[in-house]
Amino acid sequence: MSSLTTLARPYAKAAFELALADDALAAWDDMLALAGAMVSEQAMVSLIDNPDVGKAQVLEILTDAAGDAFDDRFRGLLAVVADNRRLPLLPQVGALYRGLREEAENRLSVRVVSAVPLDEGQSQRLKEALARRFEREIQLENEIDPEVIGGAVVYAGSKVIDGSLRGRLARLTASLAN
Fold first, then answer.
1. Which pLDDT value is given to residue 72?
2. What CATH number should be reported for the domain holding residue 132?
């Protein structure tokens, strides 16, 4: 996984620089998400992996299928990615790009995993606390996992805050074992 990230990073940075120059961060995010989804489809994976299909043909099929969703500069980036045989990296490129965009816009996407859905008050208090801690605007996504038992696990960028009952029990078990 880390090697894929290493390979995808230069393309994500290039996409970010192009989007920033065009003042089109959101549009490029959408284009990268679409392209990433397209190259992840099994039919497209088979086409990309087919040695009888040239990279120019794959690129043409990809851009034709997208219609007007891709602008000319994005098509240019796709051409470079295709020339380097890196189209399968587009989902990782998109994820890295979103991170660069969030940083530039002083935002942070946070995933909260809890046993039950958070109510509006809990969500708001959590967003405010995380905004103070990370000094960014927080976009909160709540995921339900009954195995958490109680509390929540917060995934904020590269940070994980485990306030779940399951996590506390695991820590207690580990400390008793020592």
1. 93
2. 3.40.30
In a shared domain, residues 133 and 53:
no
Report how far residue 32's alpha carbon sits from residue 18's, in angstroms, rounded to the nearest whole number: 12
Domain CATH code at residue 47: 1.10.520.20
Per-residue pLDDT tens digits for 147-163: 888 888 999 878 898 88
Cβ burial of 110 (10 Å; 0-12, 13-18, 19+) is: buried
Residue 26 has pLDDT above 60, yes or no: yes
Cα–Cα distance measured from residue 65 to residue 76, given in angstroms and rounded to the nearest whole number: 16
C-alpha count within 13 angstroms, C-beta hemisphere, residue 58: 27
